[in-house]
Design goal:
- By secondary structure, this protein is of the alpha+beta class.
- It contains 14 helices and 37 strands.
- The protein folds into three domains: 305 residues, 3-Layer(aba) Sandwich (Rossmann fold), CATH 3.40.50.1820; 112 residues; 91 residues, no CATH class.
- An eight-stranded mixed β-sheet has the order 30-31-33-32-34-35-36-37, sandwiched between helices.
- A hairpin with a 4-residue loop joins strand 7 and strand 8.
- Helix 2 packs antiparallel against helix 6, helix 2 crosses helix 14 and helix 8 crosses helix 9.
- It is globular and about 65 Å long.
Length: 691
C-alpha cells in the first residue's frame, strides 16, 4: 500500500473501504435494517407501487435507434424486469401497439447463466449494403456497474455467435473495423489500464485471436484518462480516429494516415468532430488559431473542410457564437444538414444549418417557453430525417419525426400523464449569488401557492462537468412529491437550480466553478435556497435538497457548510471524501474538475468543500439520508459509508444510510430497485419536512 501524504488528515473509517469485506458488509446490513425500519410502512409500500407503475408503464415512449430497415429498442417492465432487446419496422412502430421482434430476453439469459446481467447497449457492424445489419457487440454488466462483458450477437438467428468475440468483464470500449476485426480497449493485464481505471491502449483483435495476442494500435500515458480508437464507416469517408482523453476536458484527436497517427492540430480543450468532409471544432476557452487575428469565444462552434485544415488552412467558419444568455448544448448531423440545440436562459431553441447554402441558419421548430426540446438525426448516412423530443415539468414527453426542409415535424409517440398537473404551474426565477451572479431556477408548484413559508419544498441541482439540468417530465416527481399532501392540505413544491459548474450557459458557466472556485456552485445553490425563503415559498424546516454523484457532493456541502438552510438532505452515490476520492474507483479521472488532494497547495482549497472533513461535533445537522450501491464502480460506495459512520460517531442520530447490493452508479439495475430507491429518498424527505 502506498503511503498517504502527510498533509492529509487521518481516517478512522478506512476499514469501510473494503467494499466486499465481511465486517463492512455487516455494518451495511445493520444500517439497511435500521433505515427500512424507519421508512418502510404501509404508506411507503403504496407509494413504491405507484412509482413502479410509472416506471413499468407500457404507455411509455419506446425510444428507438434506426439500423438499416429496423428500429431497435431496449425495454423493461413488470414482466421483464431485466429487459428485452427488440426491434420493429417503422410501419409497426407507428401503431399504438407495435409488433416487436424479441432478439434477447435478458431475464432468461440471467436465469440460464446464473448471472444477474444488466443490458448496457449494443454496437452494430455496418454491412456493405448499409441495410442488412446482422452482427452486434452486446455490452452486458454482471452487476450494473461500468465494467461490462462484450459478446458478439447475431440478430438473424437471435443468438450469440459460436466462437464469436467475447471479452471478459472490464471497463471496455470496442469498435468494428470489419466483420472479423475489432479495435478493442480493455484490461489486457498489468500496465494496460490508466490510473483512472480505464483502458490506456487500443488494440487490433481478430476473430479467433486471444485478447492477450491483440496487436497494439494506439496508446496513451498511464496518468491520462483513456485511450479510444473508433472506425468511421460512413460510405466514402471511411477512416480510423483515435482519441487520447487526457482528462475530462482535454483531448488529443488523431486520424490514421499512412500507417501512423496524424494529430488534429488544435488546443486540447477544443472539442473535435467529423462528418463526411467536414471538421467541427468547439473551443472550451477563447481561442485564437495560430497565424490568424481572429479570437473565437468559448462555446463557439466552428467548421472547416477537413483536408484543407490538415493542409494548414485556418479559414474557419463560425457556425454559432454564444452570447450572455445563449449557449450551444449539442449538435447533430443529418446526411446534409447540421442541427443545433441551444439554450436561451435554460429554454430551448433548435436551429438547422445548410452547408450547401453557405451555412444558412433557420429555426427548425418553434419551442414552447420553460420546456426542453432536443433534435437529433434519425440516421446521418441515408436521410435528413430527425427526431424531436419535447418535454416539460408538467408536460409529458412527445416524440416527433420530421425531415429538414419538409415542414413541421409530426408527433409519433406521446407519454401518458402520470399525475394531474392542472392545478400546478411552472415559473422561472433568478436568485443572486454571493458574488452578484444571477442564478436561474425553476419552481414547480400549486397555482394557488400560499407564500407564508409553510410549503414542503424539494430543491435539486447538480453543478458539475458542464451538465445542464433542463425541464423534464417525471411521473415520479409528480406522484412522490407534487401530489403529496400535508395534514393541512398543502402540496409539494419542486425546484431545479441551474447553478455554476453546469453547462446551462456554456463552458464559461462550467469553468466558473472549477477547482479553487468550486465554492461558487455551493454559494449559488445556497442563494436559491435563501431566495425561496425570502420569497415566502418555504422555510428551513420545510426545505429539503437532493442530489446524486457530483450532486451528492453538492448536497453534502449544503449539509456541512449551510446546515441552517435545510431541514433534510438526501445524498446519493456521492463524492464526500475529497482527500481520497482520487484513489477510489474512477476518481482519478476527475482531478480536472476538483483538483488533486495529494498536492498540498490544492488540498488547501479542496478541503473547503470536502464534506467528510467539514463535519464537526455539536452541529445541528439536518435530517440526512445517504444512499449508494455496493456495485458502483464509478464513485464507489465507500465515501457514502464513511460519511454516515462519522456523522453517527459524532452523535448525529438523525442520519440514515441505505446501500443497494447491485445497481452500479445508478443505484438500481431494474425498475423495481429504482422504485424502491426513489421512494426511500422522497419518503424520507417528505416525512422529515412535514412531521
Amino acid at each position: 500500500m502506498t503511503e498517504e501524504p502527510t498533509h492529509l488528515p487521518d481516517d478512522e473509517f478506512l476499514w469501510l473501504e473494503d467494499i466486499y469485506g465481511e465486517k463492512p458488509l455487516d455494518w451495511v446490513r445493520d444500517q439497511n435494517t435500521r433505515t427500512q425500519a424507519k421508512l418502510v410502512d404501509r404508506k411507503f409500500l403504496e407509494l413504491e407501487q405507484s412509482v413502479l407503475e410509472v416506471l413499468d408503464s407500457e404507455e411509455r415512449i419506446p425510444a428507438v435507434t434506426k439500423r438499416g430497415n429496423f428500429y431497435y429498442n431496449f425495454w423493461r417492465d413488470k414482466t421483464n424486469p431485466r429487459g428485452l432487446w427488440r426491434r420493429t419496422t417503422w410501419e409497426s412502430y407507428l401503431q399504438d401497439s407495435p409488433e416487436w421482434d424479441i432478439l434477447l430476453d435478458v431475464d432468461a439469459l440471467a436465469a440460464a447463466e446464473g448471472t444477474e446481467w444488466v443490458f448496457a447497449g449494443s454496437q452494430f457492424l455496418r454491412p456493405a449494403d448499409g441495410t442488412s445489419y446482422r452482427r452486434a457487440l452486446l455490452r452486458l454488466s454482471p452487476d450494473g456497474g461500468d465494467a461490462v462483458t462484450l459478446r458478439e450477437f447475431d440478430v438473424e438467428i437471435r443468438s450469440f455467435v459460436d466462437g464469436g468475440f467475447e471479452i471478459p468483464a472490464a471497463k471496455t470500449y470496442a469498435s468494428w473495423l470489419d466483420e472479423d476485426t475489432i479495435m478493442l480497449g480493455t484490461d489486457f493485464g498489468p500496465g494496460s489500464m490508466t490510473t483512472s481505471s480505464y483502458p490506456r491502449t487500443s488494440r487490433i483483435l481478430r476473430r479467433g485471436q486471444s485478447p492477450a495476442d491483440a496487436e497494439p494500435y494506439f496508446e496513451v500515458p498511464a496518468e491520462h484518462m483513456l485511450a479510444q480508437a473508433v472506425h468511421d464507416s460512413t460510405p466514402g469517408y471511411e477512416r480510423e480516429i483515435a482519441v487520447d482523453v487526457i482528462d475530462f476536458f482535454n483531448y488529443r484527436n488523431y486520424l490514421r494516415r499512412d500507417g501512423g497517427w496524424l494529430p488534429i492540430d488544435v488546443p486540447t480543450d477544443v472539442e473535435v468532430g467529423f462528418h463526411q468532409q467536414w471538421l467541427t471544432l468547439r473551443p472550451q476557452t477563447d481561442w485564437q488559431p495560430a497565424g490568424t487575428d481572429t479570437t473565437y469565444p468559448a462555446g463557439s462552434l466552428l467548421a472547416a473542410g477537413l483536408e484543407d485544415f490538415l493542409a494548414g488552412s485556418r479559414d474557419l467558419i463560425a457556425l454559432f457564437t454564444p452570447d450572455a444568455g445563449t449557449s450551444l448544448q449539442s449538435w447533430s448531423w443529418t446526411q446534409n444538414f447540421l442541427l443545433l440545440n441551444l439554450l436561451q436562459d435554460v429554454s430551448s431553441q433548435v436551429l438547422v444549418l445548410d452547408p450547401a447554402q453557405n451555412w444558412a441558419a433557420a429555426e427548425l421548430d418553434a419551442c414552447p417557453p420553460l420546456h426542453s426540446v432536443d433534435a437529433s438525426a434519425v440516421d446521418d448516412e441515408d436521410s435528413d430525417d430527425y427526431w424531436l423530443v419535447a418535454t416539460g415539468f408538467l408536460t409529458p414527453s412527445t416524440l416527433s419525426r420530421g425531415t429538414v426542409a419538409g415542414g413541421p415535424a409530426t408527433a409519433v409517440k406521446s407519454s401518458p400523464s402520470f399525475f394531474d398537473a392542472s392545478g400546478h404551474t411552472v415559473e422561472q426565477h433568478f436568485a443572486v449569488s454571493k458574488d452578484g451572479t444571477k442564478i436561474p431556477y425553476f419552481q414547480v408548484g400549486p397555482k394557488d401557492l400560499t407564500y407564508d413559508g409553510g410549503n414542503p419544498t424539494l430543491l435539486s441541482g447538480y453543478g458539475g462537468f458542464e451538465v445542464s439540468r433542463t425541464p423534464a417530465y417525471s411521473g415520479t416527481v409528480g406522484r412522490a412529491w407534487l401530489q403529496q399532501r400535508t395534514a393541512d392540505g398543502r402540496g409539494g413544491v419542486y425546484v431545479l437550480a441551474n447553478i455554476r459548474g453546469g453547462g446551462e450557459y456554456g463552458p464559461a458557466w462550467h469553468r466558473a466553478a472549477l477547482q479553487a472556485n468550486r465554492h461558487r456552485a455551493y454559494e449559488d445553490f445556497a442563494a436559491v435556497a435563501q431566495d425561496l425563503m425570502d420569497r415566502g415559498v418555504t422555510r428551513r424546516e420545510r426545505l429539503g435538497c437532493s442530489g446524486g454523484s457530483n450532486g451528492g457532493l453538492l448536497v453534502g456541502n449544503m449539509l456541512t457548510r449551510y446546515p441552517p438552510l435545510f431541514g433534510a438532505v438526501s445524498c446519493g452515490v456521492p463524492l464526500l471524501d475529497m482527500a481520497r476520492y482520487t484513489k477510489l474507483s474512477a476518481g482519478y479521472s476527475w482531478i480536472a474538475e476538483y483538483g488533486d488532494p495529494e498536492d498540498p497547495a490544492q488540498w488547501d482549497f479542496i478541503r473547503t468543500f470536502s464534506p467528510y472533513h467539514l463535519l464537526e461535533s455539536g452541529t445541528d445537522y439536518p435530517d440526512t439520508l445517504i444512499w449508494t450501491a455496493t456495485s458502483d464502480d464509478r464513485v464507489g460506495p465507500v465515501q457514502a459509508r464513511k460519511m454516515a459512520a462519522r456523522m453517527q460517531a459524532l452523535g448525529a442520530e438523525n442520519v440514515w444510510f441505505h446501500e443497494a447490493l447491485e445497481g452500479g452508479h445508478a443505484g438500481a439495475s431494474d425498475n423495481k430497485q429504482a422504485a424502491r430507491l426513489q421512494t426511500l429518498s422522497n419518503t424520507f424527505l417528505w416525512n422529515a419536512l412535514t412531521d
